[in-house]
Structure formats: C-alpha cells, structure tokens
Amino acid sequence: MVTTPDTTVVEEPRPSGPEGDALLEVSGLRKHFPVTRGAVVKRQVGAVKAVDGVDFTVRTGQTLGLVGESGCGKTTTGRMITRLLEPTDGRIVFQGRDITHVSQGAMRPLRRDIQMIFQDPYSSLNPRKTVGSIVGAPFHLQKVATEAGVKKAVQDLLDVVGLNPEHYNRYPHEFSGGQRQRIGIARTLALRPKLIVADEPVSALDVSIQAQVVNLLEDLQDEFDLTYVVIAHDLSVVRHISDQVGVMYLGKMVELGDNESLYSGPMHPYTVALLSAVPVPDPSVRGGRERIRLQGDVPSPLNPPPACRFHTRCWKAQEVCGQVEPPMVELRPGHQVACHFPENAPADAENRVAKAAGIA
Ligand code: SF4
Q1: For 168-192, what is each residue's pLDDT tens digit?
Q2: Coiled-coil annotation: which residues (predicted)?
Q3: Which protein residue has the closest C-alpha to ligand 1 atom 6?
C-alpha cells in the first residue's frame, strides 16, 4: 500500500466515478499538421492528416488498446488526449468536462488526473537526477507535498512497482531497461492519476521483460483504480490487458471492438492481417491459419488514398472501396468496423454497411 505524503492541500482520494461510467469520450478527433513552403514567406501547401476523425469511449477502470503500424496516428491521438498536442478539430471529454481546448494553465490541475507513460525508458528519465528526485518531481511541481513526506511516498512507490526502496539515491544508468520503465511508471503514479496513456510501454524492452511490465500495469490498475489507453504496434501486447481494442490505419479508426469479439473474429481485413502475424506458439492452436503479408508500405498521410484508405493494400478491394468511404458500423454487439466487405461478419453485413454509406 502506498502512503500519501504530508500535503499542503487536502489529499483525499478523488472520486473517479463508478466503474463502467465513461471516463474519456473522444469524438471526431483530428490533427492535421500544416506543410509549408518558402524560406521567408511561408505558405501552406498541404497538411499531414495524422489523425482524421477518431471516435471512442473509455469506461472507468477499463483499458482501451490502440493498435496500428507506425504512422497510423495512435501516438498523436494519445498526445492529444493528454493535451501535449492541440487538436485541430473534434472533442475530448474527460469526466464529463470538455478539455479539448483548455489552456495550459487550466490543464495544470488536470495533469494530476491524466498522465502519460513514454515509450523509451532511456530517454524519458533525466540521467543527472536521482531516482528519488525523478519520482518525487510531480509532488514538487504540483506543490502537493511537503519535503518531509516526499521521500517516504517515493520509497513506497518504488516498492509498489517492484524496485528496492533503498535505491532512492541511485541514478537511471544504474538500472536495466525494465527497471527504468518501472521508475517511469512510479513517477506516473505519484499523483494518483485516474487515466494513464501508455505509449508503447514495452516496445523498447527485451521480450522476456515485456510480460513482467504488462503484468505490473495490470496489477496497478486494480490497486490504484486506473483507466488505461495503451498504445502498441503489436496486437499481442494489448491482448491481455485490454477490455476494448481499436485498430487504426492512416489516421482513421478502422475497427473497434470488445477484446473477445475482436480477437476471436476480426472483421477488418487489416486487423485480420495484423492478427495473422502474431506468433502462436502451439501449432495445433494455430490450425490452418496462414500469415497474410500486406503488400507495399503505408501510403503517405500527406496524400492518403481516397475513400477506404486501405484499398491500395487490401486483397479484398473492389471498385466501390476506392470510391465510397465505408462508415463505422456496429455489426456485432460492441464491435464496429469500417469496411464494405468485412470478414467474419453476419450475413447481412454488406447490406447494412451499404445502407449506412448511402449506396444501398
Ligand atoms: Fe478492403 Fe474494401 Fe474493406 Fe477497404 S472497404 S478494407 S478495401 S474490402
């Protein structure tokens, strides 16, 4: 159990709403980065549509896994949720409050509630600071703790994340990659956040360490009543930790579903391809499943393909795919997909999608 440091303000546990209530609601979220030309007089010649209309809801105490290849917009989405990036359009509602365009000043108290775990445990920790001052920094920044209480609170946090509290005065270079990520997680927990956005939390770690860190995140979720958005390029990383999984491609959400439904019956051809690449150790479980190798690279978000953005790489593509954008349609309970010809879908799926797209 972590003790709370002596505080200059009342440090009562803050209610985060009953389990199952919407904690984070994202709708129509967009981030377009302008592309400019000209050395002296700059003029905009285009925009990189890094995120281009993304919707999802994360319920209290649950985990959304956001998955996709590099450049699909998942990290940009995470950075907009934590307001490290200003959205171009759309809405972010946290605990019923619209935080889409709140000022940095107004965001400051909210930083206690919304924290981020970064991908690279090597570069995200200041090498000149001791572990004690790194993990204790949020208490000082938010002015919520007296000096006397910080050390005890930090040592308790180190204990909770599986590190030796006696290592309080050591420096980051004295720890392994997995231990450094644990230090980053301890720092994130310091202010008892409600929502943590974890951006590729294990991708920089050895495979043997990845499961330990994922298990730690799961344990902490129960102990601290945390809600997570976990970003990963690999569906296998988020499988065991996510209640809901969103698959992104070129700035769009192409499939969003409950964990069980998505892994047992992926409907979007892109998700099917990603899942086919996940290694299955037991050949009898793998069955006749063949690996689907996608042709070509992800197109540039500066000039994405029209209509279904995946049509240049999809083995099921037909003419309509390059002409009409498929809308997100809930084809199974709690499971939506944006595809004219989904896999593993109910018999009337194509009609329902065509109707929603206005072409039936
Ligand atoms: Fe493939 Fe067409 Fe579905 Fe796009 S809409 S994923 S191109 S089948």
Answers
A1: 999 999 999 999 999 999 999 998 9
A2: none
A3: 339
